[in-house]
Amino acid sequence: MAREGEAKLREFGGDDFRVENFRVDDEKWVDLTDDFDFHNRLYFLNFTAKIHFLRDFQVPSRKQIAARVGAADWTIDEAQRDLERGDLFSMNTFTSGTGMTLRAAAVFDDMEPGWRFDRLDSMRK
Amino acid sequence: MMRRTPHILGSLLFAALAVNGMSLASRLSLFIPLAALCGSLAWFAYGLLYLGPKQSWLYRRRKELLLALGSAIGALVIAVVGSALVSAGMSPQFRRVHYNPQTKQIAQAGDPELSWAPVGPIDVVGQRLQKVDPTKPHIAFIGDSIIYGLHLDEKDTTVSLLNEALPKYQFINAGVSGYSIEQYWIYLRRILPATKPKLILVGLFTGNDVQLTGREYTPWGRSKPLFHVEDGQLVKINRAAHCIDAISDSLLFTVFWHSKETAVKLVKLLCDPVELPRGELEAEISKLFDEIEAVGKESGARVVWIILPLRWDVDPTQGIREQTNYVFKYGLLKRLLREGHHDVLDFTIDLWKSKVDLSKVFQEDNGHLTALGQRMLADSVRRYIEEHHLLP
Hints:
The structure holds two protein chains of two kinds. Chain A has three helices and six strands, in the order H-E-E-E-H-H-E-E-E. By secondary structure, chain A is an alpha+beta fold. In chain A, the strands form two sheets. A four-stranded antiparallel sheet of chain A has the order 1-2-5-6. Chain A starts with a helix and ends with a strand. Chain A binds chain B through residues 30, 32, 34, 36-38, 40-42, 62-63, 65-66, 69-70, 74, 76, 79-80, 83, 87, 107, 109-114, 118-119, 121, and chain B through 208, 210-212, 219, 264, 277-280, 282, 315-318, 321-323, 325-327, 346, 348-349, 352-355.
């Protein structure tokens, strides 16, 4: 799962940032139950990664994301990608050529048996 | 007095421990404490009646008192078992959900294949008991209570509005409250001989379609058909349907239905219904999507899947992150539809783009649509049909 988590982070980086280093820190199990008693069993693989920005990278705020909705070139995938970026980086601007240490989590669904990667998210302690 | 005090105190303590042990987590943790409770009662009776002074009234009348106690317990057991075996009809929870205050009816009856289904002749379809017009081409709109239009007059439903806007066709409201994806498939096949649709619209509700599919029990006390994928085919795997229906509809359970959570927990405990693990659930849903498409193809009808969101799915910038990311099933349904290359109308996007006040679109339960919501859905469907040239 560590390999898959790292691969997903690199994929998420795309042309925006490069992953230079990836280290698994620890893990946490989370069980979320809804009103229908449906159990969502999740595995948070907390990691620390050194990343290097390949271009200027801005993470919009939720207000900015909402303001884009309905624009001619807007898609829901754009909104969801920006929300996921916000979960990882918070609202921020990063300059091309700079680096940072990212502490986050690769989240996996328990498929009973087996695992499936769901998303990247902030660390869970 | 001194001789029996330890027995009386001991039996009371044992009874308290027994009651505390009833966690309803498993059958064992229900029946062992029940047996322990009976034991503590017997111990109490022994201490009270047999260990007192021989001149006391209790000791002299011990046999009659024991007989009276035994008879009372026996009568209680007979009453409980008897009321569990006597059917009181559909559970109060089911009647609450399916009762139509406008018609003052429940247009559903027990059904061996679907568990419950609208009643009527073959050319009367859906919970609205809509008569099929053989002179018009049909569009079948399958779904649950969202499509049915729970708490709304028929004229305010999406289907009715589409019939008004496109009178050349007959949109058929095949929505049935409480159905999930297995039942969409089975009910679609049932109505096809009468409807022969040109287009099939399937409303997928993100609020509970995933959660209810993959289980053989429902929160309103009925069983439902359940399948899993075996060698690429859907195979029915119900094992507790009779138990679920018998227990839920029994006279005894009319008491428990005052608390839906308690009643459902007891049904699960006593009947041990099947619930698919996550991987099998997703495989079942994907296969059901394919089977519904196959049914459509066989009838010459295109199938369009309509994502019907919860209020909290519409604008994730306003939602609680953990629920939006991991609890709500909007993302899962979208992914499964995308992986299966199905045609999708995502009503969530239309609602978000409209920037409408969502409290006016959704009823208080944040799932069912108001009359305004149904109108917006009708507009979205009509636009989609026109943009994709789905009807001649």
